[in-house]
Amino acid sequence: MPELPEVEIVRQSLEKKVKNKVIQKVIVKNRNLRFKINSKFKRRLHKKKIKKIDRFSKYLIITFQDESGFIIHLGMSGTIHLHDINKKNTFTNTSFYHSPILPKKHNHVEIQFNKINLIYNDPRRFGYFLTFNNKIELKKKFSHFGPEPFSNSFNAEYIIKYLKKKEKNIKNFLLDQKFVSGIGNIYASEILFFSKINPCTKAKNLKKKECRKILLYSKLVLKEAIKKGGSSIRDFKNINGKKGTFQKDFKVYQRENLKCSKPKCSGIIKKKIISNRSSFFCNYCQK
DNA sequence: AAGAGGCCCTGATAGC
DNA sequence: TGCTATCAGGGCCTCT
Fold first, then answer.
1. Which of A68, A191, A266, A280 suits a disulfide with A252, CB 3.0-4.6 Å?
2. Span A4-141 CATH architecture
3. pTM above 0.85, yes or no
4. pLDDT at residue number A234
């Protein structure tokens, strides 16, 4: 579900709420996530004090004072809910992912702090938790990942060199975490729209100028999305909490058959399935 | 070695 | 308080 901007919003909220707090108890109600939560999980978290909450790509990284810690990946449908136990039945609403209403089903993991509970909810169970013992283990986990769009190593030279001779279409590469980390299906379509590149274009056929546009708009689109609190696609019922608003800025995603929003463009937004994922593009400015 | 496709899972919605 | 098919923001694995 969440791409880099949404995970960043969750990270910011967690930082406010659980940094420097000590884990008192861990309850695993369903260990069958994408990867099975192992028997050591509880023990590795028990009584640990949270030193920092980082994010790499779409992954949350929670590090303890002793440099051990754990990673959370939210998969397609994972959400994190924070429950302040002093306020009965009230959940923080610092972001879309912190609904004031706790879902009834699929609350698989609960991490209890002194006055606050962190609850991991995930209907599809594509998300997972993974513990690490030290910096080296953590680094190893992400060693095969490409740079984030904001990274200096994601530059024009890198993109041009990487995509040269590649037969696959560019949409696939934006989703390929080995090429660039953190972009998902929504932002891939949006970035290509701003870059005026058809998602089916073979990577090897991209001009240098187009590669530079991908570089520019990958940064811009994601930064803007973070600024707007991410994208909230499906409307949860009975929510009074603050949602992300970037979905209002979508230029192509889920806008099939609507007019292109670009001034003076007579194009229509089309939907095409590429590698089993929906892609949206303007049939005029993304020829 | 790059690329294509299957698969993990539940829930919402559309169409019959 | 029908049934069935399709689709959903991810990514790992296997096969060619």
1. A280
2. Alpha-Beta Barrel (3.20)
3. yes
4. 67
